[in-house]
Amino acid sequence: MSNPVFSNSNVFGEPRRNAPGGTTTAPPQYGQYGQQGAQAADAATLQNMYEAPAATPVDTRRMTYTDVIMKTAGQFALLVVMAAVSWTLVDTVPMLWVGGMIVGLVLGLVNAFKKNPSPLLISLYSIAQGAFLGGISAFYEAQFDGIVLQAVLATFSVFGVALALFSSGKVRVTPKFTRFLLIGMLGYLVFSLLNMILVWTGVLEGWGMRGGTLGIVIGIVAVVLASMSLIMDFDSIQRGVEGGAPAKYAWSAAFGLMVTLIWLYLELLRLIAILRGSE
């Protein structure tokens, strides 16, 4: 899996392929009791179940696509509001967006590896990323008038196309698809780190290796990788819904989508800047 939010979760994960005896085991199916499991329950287990308090609607309700949509919309609204605030304060409080970048990175890692989702931490992540995106977007807008609107429209367009392709079944997440994405993302990560080091040390100037024709090609590759990651996110969410995951994991799904959408927006913003800078 490409997105650690989903790949580190048993709720959204792919079937495990190395089960004993060479068989493939599926992700856990919540709210279902297998025949073998019922037969294996001993008297003590049954007694504990009998004495346990009755499950509440919160405990028994399962995640739905509506849950994911509503949670994602809420997080997106938080991000947009904070981005607008950061945009207006970019000149008077320039460290706001830098702090948002650092806090967002930390909270992103914390949320990605938490087994149980925290609505508070996920909301704080969206707020921090909003502060970061507002500041960096204002920086790009000052150099290229209208570029933010272009990047936003492009992000929604790519999201819509990716969702349509996945929903239609024309693009499926297969082992080959996953391997290609993993190799591509690792290669892109190495390239980005190397380019950043060369620019920071003064070996290269401007965009570094991202300038010119090579930069445009790299930018297109990055957008393709982010689009493929979106499709894998959709597939993971589908696994969670069809597997009957508890409703609380809609927060994890929303967070995972936000991570990929933010990455896609930044790549499109940078690609459009490179294209317009070369005009």
Explain the overall architecture.
Helix 5 (65-88) packs across helix 7 (119-143) and helix 5 (65-88) crosses helix 11 (250-277). The chain is built from eleven helices and no strands. With 279 residues, the protein is an all-alpha fold. Residues 15-26, 31-42 and 55-59 have low confidence and may be disordered. It has helices at 4-7, 35-40, 43-51, 57-60, 65-88, 95-112, 119-143, 147-168, 175-200, 212-242, 250-277. Helices cover 71% and strands 0% of the residues. It has one domain.
Q: Main beta sheet: strand number and arrangement?
A: none
Which regions contain 5 or more consecutive residues with pLDDT less than 50?
Answer: 15-26, 31-42, 55-59
**Helical residues, percent:** over 70%
> What's the shape?
globular
Question: How many H/I helical runs?
Answer: 11
The figure for the number of domains is: 1
Sheet/helix structural class: mainly alpha
Tell me the fraction of residues in β-strands, as a range.
under 5%
Report the span from N to C terminus.
Answer: 38 Å
Number of strands: 0
Protein name: Bax inhibitor 1 like protein
Transmembrane segments: 68-89, 95-113, 120-140, 146-168, 180-201, 207-228, 249-266
Region (Disordered): 1-33
Biased composition (Polar residues): 1-11
